[in-house]
Amino acid sequence: MEQKAQATTRRFHGSKVVLYIVLTLLAAYTLAPLYFLLVNSFKSQSEIVRNPLSLPSLWDFSYLSNAAEKINFFRSLGITFLITLASLILIVVVSSLAAWIMVRNKTKTSGVIFLFFVSAMLIPFQSIMYPLLNFMDMLGLKNMGGLVIMYGGFGLSMSVFLYHGFIKSVPQGIEEAAVIDGANILQVFFRIVFPLLRSTTVTVIILNGMWIWNDYLLPFLVIGNSSGVKTLTLELYFAKILSGQYGSPWELIFPAVLISILPIVVVFLSLQKYFIKGISEGAVKT
Amino acid sequence: MTGYYKKWFYPLVLPALILFAMVILIPFLLGILYSFTGWRGTYFAGGGEWYESFVGLQNYVKAFKNPKFMSSLWYTLRYTVVAVIAINAAGLALGLMVTGISKGSGAYRTIFFMPNLLGGLALGYIWQIIFNSLYTDLLFGPNGIFPVDFFSYMLQDQTKALFALVIMMVWQTAGYMMIVYVTGLNNIPGDLYEAAQIDGTTLWQRFKNITLPMLMPSITICVFLTLANSFKLLDQNIALTNGDFNTRMLAMQILRTTKDTTPPDYGLAQAQAVIFFIMIAIITLTQVTVTKKQEVEL
């Protein structure tokens, strides 16, 4: 009996070693394209063609600074950051307030409204983008402000759903006490309820932030190439289209992609625990 | 207190309702309406107002007779089947492996998740070069180290490009599904495995009879996410092949329909968009109903 147990443990350890080897190989496979991106961001076109995998013969930062200039890096980074931030604030405030009052005021109307929000999750962006753009144009909102409103509308459904699910488990006793103490409704919500929703707020910010930051289609339709003010992804798209007209596109594409993904990678590495938590909680509730 | 909440219901729900109406509801209804008209984007063919431009089901008939639309529809369906299976198999395998170790598990998870952060466009450009330079010139092309026809010039053939897209999407999104599967795996009570081990079951039996059934809620979610995302895929499709060699998927077809003809046929594009919505709704709702039935209650 004891012998058998020992054999099992040994086999177990053996399989652990195999597991580590396989995982490390897969991690290398996952990182390989990023390595490829990194080393080629410092090479000339001809060096990329000659030695695509080796380290650059010289760590030449001129390709990076050239790419930063071509995609107006600091301006487009700032614009992308502002759009993402404004959209997230809009989504968080509007959907948490609506979800809270829908949970607290349980009527038929509130149930129907909730159902409306949830079923909208099935509507893909592409199936309404043309009439949406047409309608926003009519309202004079085919601009940055309109972009934020559209992200707000699209982020709403899932966020209301997530907040709604969480608020159901928040006791309402403290709210009553605060009302008796003379707090107004916004004070009750923002001072007492909202801090309790922190974990859902993190989920909402991560899930919405990831797609808004990287989104290509909506800025393409709203801003396009006409205005000088573009998001990072949009700048990258137009840089790539233009690069075909020069003789050496790769020495622009590699560094342009590298600097455009750098900010979100830095954010992720410093807040990774929230990303992982946000995604697993977001998925469990949907 | 009930009266208090009731009094504040509309003021607090109103901002959400306005946003919802502006961005989703009104465009959705307008879209259905416009799909029955000769909409040209800035005007309506044959009349000043939309109701003077009614064409009945003509746009829908045109859509199903349009070889580009039909080709993108089949291509999307084929891609979706392969991608859903491949991404979920990879995500589940990663999940099983990272939960099988204790030391360093977090670092592996971080690495596997990382590609999800990057935009589809940025990634597509890099993978385009990887398929051209590494896959073709260095590894699998006629002058490569191990010539394999299937893996060379992958972006210049409809079927090969489909698998190129799958290779890239597995690389990018398997780590996301891994996180969802890990959450599910951690929720399976350990004593189930202990009891089964005492009964002398094999690893495969435990996987098939404990892990899989207990994991059904996570499978429902992950299949739903991959199904919807594969069907709606756009950025990566644009970045990798830009629809060349008949590799347009549905989302790109809807986007490019208005560039295919002059004057732009927004009516036709919108009819395709409505068909697109109906198909996504049917496919995802069916999937959730079917996989939900497989879930077990403890």
Task: Chart the SSEs and their pairings.
The complex is a heterodimer of chains A (286) and B (298).
Chain A: H1 2-40, H2 45-50, H3 62-70, H4 73-104, H5 108-119, H6 129-138, H7 144-167, H8 173-180, H9 185-196, H10 198-214, H11 217-222, H12 232-243, H13 250-285
Chain B: H1 2-34, H2 58-65, H3 67-100, H4 105-113, H5 120-140, H6 158-186, H7 190-198, H8 203-214, H9 216-231, H10 235-240, H11 250-260, H12 266-293
Helix pairs in contact in B: 2-12, 3-6, 3-9, 4-6, 6-9, 9-12, 11-12
What does this structure look like?
The complex is a heterodimer of chains A (286) and B (298). Chain A is mostly helical and 286 residues long. Chain A folds into two domains: 2-38; 72-285, MetI-like (MetI-like fold, Orthogonal Bundle). Chain A contains 13 helices and no strands. Chain A has helices at 2-40, 45-50, 62-70, 73-104, 108-119, 129-138, 144-167, 173-180, 185-196, 198-214, 217-222, 232-243, 250-285. In chain A, helix 12 runs antiparallel to helix 13 (250-285). The two termini of chain A are 47 Å apart. The model of chain A is unreliable at 1-11 (pLDDT under 50). Chain B has two domains: 17-56, no CATH class; 65-293, MetI-like fold (Orthogonal Bundle), CATH 1.10.3720.10. In chain B, helix 2 (58-65) crosses helix 12 (266-293), helix 4 packs antiparallel against helix 6 and helix 6 (158-186) packs antiparallel against helix 9. At the A-B interface, helix 1, helix 4, helix 5, helix 6 and helix 7 of A face helix 1, helix 3, helix 4, helix 5 and helix 6 of B.
